[in-house]
Amino acid sequence: MARFDLDNLVFANKDVLREDWQPDNLAERDAEMDTCASALRPLLRGNQPDNLFLYGLTGVGKTAATHALITELLDAAADAERHLEVVELNCTGITSSYQVAVNLVNEMRTGDAHSHALTTVSLEKDPLPETGHPQKRVFRELLKDFESAGGDVIVVLDEIDTIGSDDDILYELPRARKTYDIDVNLGLIGISNDFKFRENLSPKVKDSLCEKEVHFQPYDAEQLVRILEKRADRALADGVLSEGVVPLCAAMAAQDSGSARQALRLLRIAGDFAENGPSDGDPRITEEHVRRAEEEIQRQQVVEGMEELTRHGKLVLLTVAHLEAEGETPERTKVIHQRYRQVSKREGSDPLKRRAMHDHLTDLTLQGVLTKIDDTSGRGNYNQYELDVELDSAIDALEVEFDDLSAVRETAHRNHVL
Length: 418
Ligand code: ADP
Ligand code: MG
What we know:
Elements: H1 30-40, E1 52-55, H2 62-79, E2 84-90, H3 97-109, H4 135-149, E3 152-158, H5 168-172, H6 176-179, E4 186-192, H7 195-200, H8 203-209, E5 212-215, H9 221-235, H10 245-256, H11 260-276, H12 287-307, H13 311-325, E6 331-332, H14 333-346, H15 354-366, E7 370-375, E8 382-387, H16 391-398, H17 406-414
Parallel strand pairs: 1-4, 1-5, 2-3, 3-4
Antiparallel strand pairs: 6-8, 7-8
Helix pairs in contact: 1-2, 3-4, 9-10, 9-11, 10-11, 11-12, 12-16, 13-14, 13-15, 13-16, 13-17
Bound molecules: adenosine-5'-diphosphate (ADP) and magnesium ion.
């Protein structure tokens, strides 16, 4: 087949499986969107809306639902001849209220900086520098800009948990009408993946930001099947989908996280394998492709997790991989530490004390690379650890840091764990 031949492709429109593709009407989130709509509806009569706080694990449709809802609301506002504007900011990488304010101002002033944002405001003013003003002054500037927008304003702060405890802005914005005497109805929508952030909000912020809270539950397998079928229909060429593929992607994602993002990713990568693998001119996505996609995703996950590990974090992971290859996992901290000392010395590093090493076990567990198992059988109460990813994926990822791991692979084969 010629390299750029467009016959016999798996994808008809691959963009539809991309994470940032916006579905026309979002299924499976009617109840959540109804609640949000009732909070925002007063805007259509020129009244103050309720502020909204949306939370739930990653990939459960919070951002997609917000986008779909605001698109509907803007249409309704146009019909009702109400002037409504939107400013949206994704707060990833932003760690303070001050930065949120500066970025909101610049979102309105330098329009296309965030191409996926919903922001409708575009003001002809010079952007603010990132630092160097008193916070009060930046807040005032922000509220003046809201007034200049010319109508009522909805502010969407996505992934707001990154600001941590520096949450002044979430206190100030809901009170802006009074404190700064501006004549704008301001609706605030905060979105967070982090349950702790909500618990740790100061009580005064909680009262005003969380007037209506909407919890997005993980999707179950049936919901994911329906979500995937719709997208697959548009994304894939006719007849390339084997029967069990969508249910398998849905089941894997439902079991792990309930994330539509994960389910879509499995299907997209499986499609890649089908499109680029050997074929007799009649490519099909099979369950085997989905299984390979899962391994590939896990491998990427470990590689990404590994990038954040220190040298000793990697040594700890290598130790657990050795034990896993020997069929010895789950294993207790004490034994892991003994092996870790040997592994470290062989790799030319001074081993850490047991407690410091244990911190790495905890980190790896939080990253989903290891699983902790409480063993309360027998005397005493031990924590045991094992890999939470395929051994093969872990070894692939470790090979980026350590030279020759063929011995671990051989051991694993001998013990039939690979
Ligand atoms: P979150 O913001 O909760 O992390 P997103 O809204 O970004 O999750 O959703 C992740 C991906 O899954 C996006 O590509 C989104 O379009 C898709 N998605 C989520 N929920 C649905 C749904 N109900 N129907 C169709 N696609 C969905
Ligand atoms: Mg999101």
